[in-house]
Predict the 3D structure of the following.
Amino acid sequence: MKLKILHETSYSYDTPVEALVQSLRLTPSAFEGQRVGEWVISVSGGQRGAAFRDGAGDWIEAWTVRGPVDVVTVSIAGVIETRDTAGVLRGHRESVNPLVYLRDTPATASDEALQTLADSVEGEDALDLAHRLAAAVNEAIEFVEGATEASTSAAEALELGQGVCQDHAHALIACARARGLPARYVSGYLHSTEDGKPHDAAHAWAEIHVGSLGWVGFDAANACCPDERYVRLGSGLDAQDAAPVRGMAFGISVESLDVRVHVEEVQQ
Amino acid sequence: MYYNEMIEEGAVRAPYAMLSDWVETMPAEIRQMKQAEAEALFRRIGITFAVYGEGGDPDRLIPFDMMPRVFLQSEWRRLERGIKQRARALNAFLRDVYSRGEIVRAGRIPARLVYQNEAYEKAVVGIVPPRGVFSHIVGIDIVRTGRDDFFVLEDNCRTPSGVSYMLENREIMMRMFPGLFRNNRIEPVDQYPELLRRTLASVAPAKCEGTPTVVILTPGHFNSAYYEHSFLANLMGVELVEGSDLFVDGGFVYMRTTQGPKRVDVIYRRIDDPFLDPLCFRKDSMLGVPGLMDVYRSGGVSIASAPGAGVADDKAVYTYVPEMVRFYLGEEPLLQNVHTWTLWKDDDYRYVMENLKDLVVKEVHGSGGYGMLIGPKASKAEIEEFALRIKANPGNYIAQPTLALSTSPTFVDEGIAPRHVDLRPYCLCGDRVELVPGGLTRVALREGSLVVNSSQGGGVKDTWVLTE
């Protein structure tokens, strides 16, 4: 599938800020399922600083903006060719040991309910277990927008029984780790959901490390594995660690955010 | 029996011969006067209670004992070789576990202890810092149990503190007793700040243009070790900065100065990893520099010690340091570890639980003498309570025998008496591995006490290494 992606984030400040520093993970991963065509990141009034591929295989760009400035726009315009690898992250160059992803963070810490959920299924092997865990999380947390916040933890989302893709991913990560499987958070884009309805938001899912295959993606929110509709950007221990944008503005100001993501198929 | 560093078989040992006369001929009133003078000096320079991040009352003076602890040149040479060897092995380990992890693949250390260690930083994987050094100042805590028996109690690879005491103790001794330094041939330690500056400059990034600019990054004046940060900055002739004095712009780190921004090449940070950069670690941290880690990871600045260096120095990894020496250097360790039982192993667990009253039990990530059980000094109830904590999480604990720490003569009301001591030398790793002849000697001032921590009644002494 050939996808065209436009992603624009505008930061507005009620009083101009002195400077802005950002760490962007907004370039698609290099693996067999993705071939990146033209890909342009621009930050209005910004200067590109450090740019490198990190140990987890993510391409990171640091940008700084010198103020005073009251609006900064981060734009991504790119084209990518995707291929269904049945969720398997094949051909991805990374050097972080999978065991690192057994570590808990506050967002993915297990509690009794998560442990019970994790123990409620059995699998023939690690891959089967991962599939069943993803299904169990999909069952346990209903997709409801606005029920949770960015700071909601896996335990809180499960207790609520509602959440969005971030909560599904966190819960699945917590369950997988509780069963001894390394798991991580993946941020990216999704072209459309299973029912064919257009989906215009950035997306997130989980990856679980299963011995023989390595990392495999699981989208518990949509009860499927990532295929050619998914664009993978980067990973981390949880949503905060995998955030496509981490930034900070210098100055005393109230920030408001406007995000537009558009993913469309380009007919060849 | 405890090894007495001054008296052996009823006779005064050579290193203490001169000091023995000095003590005997010193009238009591002179001694009291000098002790008061020392205290006044310490108070005037403002060095107060804050060693090894132990916390406690920040305005309390750490007691200073005027009786130096003395090593013979030959004793020191042995120690020095062992310390340098250990520092090289620890850095080799850090290089390895942030790249291919050969030592784990070879099965010489359990993967869990490395990769699931909370001090292991994923963000550092794949980075090779200048000269391959991750820990630039390695503090190795050493205890002595016999004339030739030295053991490493723990390693400190992050930002070991206390070196200002080593320097101040010497300074004050020289000021109060110049005669002692005329009559004894004592190796100097005052070159330490210059050696530290050179070490830090030697690990400037390849992108550095001209003479490297080095700064010390402090969390601020409310930090218990702030005195040391400003003291070292002064002696090194480098800027002492807080996070807000630095900023990232276009791939480099700059310091705000009255003459405008100045590029910074090496940051000697005295801030813990989680607070270094809110864009990479704790996002609520106000102490660090936003964007610092991206600059670091792309080779625009050096950080000493490297983020993630702490994976080499917790008490579980400690048990594998002799193995690191063999694995990376192909040498036999010159300094031995204290025998350590790791409670996540069944046999060790059983042994320890049956012998708690004779052992010292410590938390894997604990420090400063907190969160530990000293079996022989604990009541039955304290032991039982601690046993419950161990049972709840055995993986969090290690145990060691109660060590027969050597004694060094120490001033007491009646003259001098043996008191237990340990030693922390500071090994510098850059283009060279260097060690000034000396370190910080901590002394347990209470009679019979084996706890040298300043938070628990410990003091400090000047540490001498005699030239041949």
Residues 145 and 220 of chain A are 15 Å apart (CA to CA). Chain A touches chain B through 30 residues (CB under 8 Å).
